[in-house]
Amino acid sequence: MIPVRAEGLLREFADAGVLAPADVHVALRLGRLGSEQREPVLLAAALAVRGVRAGSVCVDLATVADSVVPDEDAPPVELAWPAEWTALEDSPVVAVGVDAPWRPLRLVDGLLYLDRYWQQEQLVRRELDERAARPAPAVDLTGLDVLFDGPAPDLQRLATAVAAGRWVSVITGGPGTGKTHTVARLLKVLLDQPGPPPRIALAAPTGKAAARLQESVLEQAAAVGLPLDLTASTLHRLLGWRPDSRSRFRHDAGNHLPYDVVVVDESSMVSLTMMARLLEALRPTARLVLVGDPDQLTPVDAGAVLSDLVHRPAADGAGAGLPDDARDAVDLDADERRQLRNGVVRLRVSQRYGPGIAGLAEAVRKGEADRVLELLDTGAELTLEPDTAALEERIRASAAELRSAAESGDAERCLALLGRHRLLCAHQRGPAGVATWNDRVGRLIGAVPGEWPPGAPLLITANDYENELWNGDTGVVVRTDDGLRAAFLRGTGPDLVPLSRLSAVHPAHALTVHRSQGSQFEEVAVLLPPASSPLLTRELLYTAVTRASRSVRIVGSEESVRAAIGRQVVRASGLRRRMDPPGGAQGTRGARSPLA
Ligand SMILES: Nc1ncnc2c1ncn2[C@@H]1O[C@H](COP(=O)(O)OP(=O)(O)OP(=O)(O)O)[C@@H](O)[C@H]1O
């Protein structure tokens, strides 16, 4: 419903489906409180609110007109974009520049922020810059020769050396490229330094990712010689819940975390707000190691900090004190060398999938649509199919196998089968959505709606501390002598939970690509929506494709594949730019000023 009192530009943009009622409401309220009625200012304010809703930290006024796609269901209309945004410069609701006193909106370098996100971005920028400027921690790297005895140049070794020698570092790479393998060796190097052993915290944005991180580190612990009592927690737990606030924590700038090393896995899912809270809670002399894959889907909340850090320009003077390994890393391209100066190392070789999927993932990542379509035409492992006939056949076969293993009570085999094949969808609803396909697969295998027959895959949708199950965990129903149980993979063996003890649980024949983040399957089928779907992005396709270890079946049109590859998630943020105070060398550098 459109607010009745919206007029002019606000109403026009709302009618076109660009602005939601909440965007208009906030803009009108802001205008009322600040005695600002000029339409371009109110429109810009509404666009800033809309930006946050869509995951951006701010709105880039120079490009917003090109990035806004009117609602398909709305009548076609030529939007009357203001010719210029100069009214913002003297608006009582806009602080202009880095140093201007507080106002609800802030305009810097052509980027318009809601103040709260500006403050958080500044905090992140300040914390990172201060840590980069501080003398590097002293570290003895002689242990690397024992920990890494593979052929040089070895990117894992380089990442370890970089992370050991900096206060903030980023280890990126696709699935199975050895990020955890590297983290385990980094911890060993740090624990072996003279003096008291560092206090280590392992964390991840979700309970499921935290459990997986702990498991993977412990798998490596014996081989590397790490203490076996290392545990991982969610970032929320690490920072300490507070009953009175959703975004403030027990540990903050006034009550630092008691750790010397903090490793955050799956950090592509960390929002700007969470990163700000984490950075302010770190002691100035704590090392922060961010681990993740910046090419995967971005967090649900605003910001894409990991991706921003990877794409940031190198700070002046950065790179002094790079480890000797960097000199030997001859095959780094110019971009990777720039990233290295910012403490970012990307691991490249996946130990988990073969050259077929690796090539496909790389072509998607680089946006090479022709190459992707060529690869999808080359054989049985990578296919593009226009209809769902073969997919349905595969689903039937896989459901029958699962059912038979479940009826015979073989939980271990059920869990192995569960990891063999998975259907992934972009949407939750609609013809190509998870809900539709869960019903459809249920009917294909003759399941009665609402019942959980043996062999039914299930998805946990809320953290369950009592049963140690995490939002996003998947399991399968198995018949046992004690009745039906849900089997979940725990370490190397199955854990059986009575169905009656599960509360937030859904069928999991199909999962959204978002939900599948952090999981791996031998065969993945990806159901692409029509090319016009706004969810169809390069990050979505990359995330889906990299869930597979053996084969990828894409069901959809060539047009949808091209649309996905051509549409990158663009989250406006100032972190990728340098923003010095006015008078500094970088005042308006690089920005196409929309105010001119
Ligand atoms: N240099 C190496 N030598 C031998 N085995 C390795 C090496 N690097 C990684 N591996 C193995 O490859 C597998 C994947 O490594 P790891 O789990 O560290 O990757 P990852 O990047 O953390 O994966 P994910 O993205 O799933 O978190 C593990 O079994 C690991 O032991």
Automatic annotation (TrEMBL):
Additional remark text: In the RecBCD complex, RecB has a slow 3'-5' helicase, an exonuclease activity and loads RecA onto ssDNA, RecD has a fast 5'-3' helicase activity, while RecC stimulates the ATPase and processivity of the RecB helicase and contributes to recognition of the Chi site.
Keyword annotations of the record: ATP-binding, DNA damage, DNA repair, DNA-binding, Exonuclease, Helicase, Hydrolase, Isomerase, Nuclease, Nucleotide-binding
Primary enzyme class: isomerase
The family this protein is said to belong to: Belongs to the RecD family.
Organism taxonomic ancestry: Bacteria, Bacillati, Actinomycetota, Actinomycetes, Geodermatophilales
Spans annotated as Disordered: 573-596
EC number: 5.6.2.3
Signal peptide per UniProt: none
GO MF terms, alphabetically ordered: 5'-3' DNA helicase activity; ATP binding; ATP hydrolysis activity; DNA binding; exodeoxyribonuclease V activity; single-stranded DNA helicase activity
Gene Ontology biological-process entries: double-strand break repair via homologous recombination
Quaternary structure (record): Heterotrimer of RecB, RecC and RecD. All subunits contribute to DNA-binding.
Residues of the RecBCD enzyme subunit RecD N-terminal domain: 16-113
Origin superkingdom: Bacteria
Domain UvrD-like helicase C-terminal: 508-555
Classification via PANTHER family: DNA HELICASE B (PTHR43788:SF6), DNA2/NAM7 HELICASE FAMILY MEMBER (PTHR43788)
GO cellular component terms, A-Z: exodeoxyribonuclease V complex
Protein name as catalogued: RecBCD enzyme subunit RecD
Purpose: A helicase/nuclease that prepares dsDNA breaks (DSB) for recombinational DNA repair. Binds to DSBs and unwinds DNA via a highly rapid and processive ATP-dependent bidirectional helicase activity. Unwinds dsDNA until it encounters a Chi (crossover hotspot instigator) sequence from the 3' direction. Cuts ssDNA a few nucleotides 3' to the Chi site. The properties and activities of the enzyme are changed at Chi. The Chi-altered holoenzyme produces a long 3'-ssDNA overhang and facilitates RecA-binding to the ssDNA for homologous DNA recombination and repair.
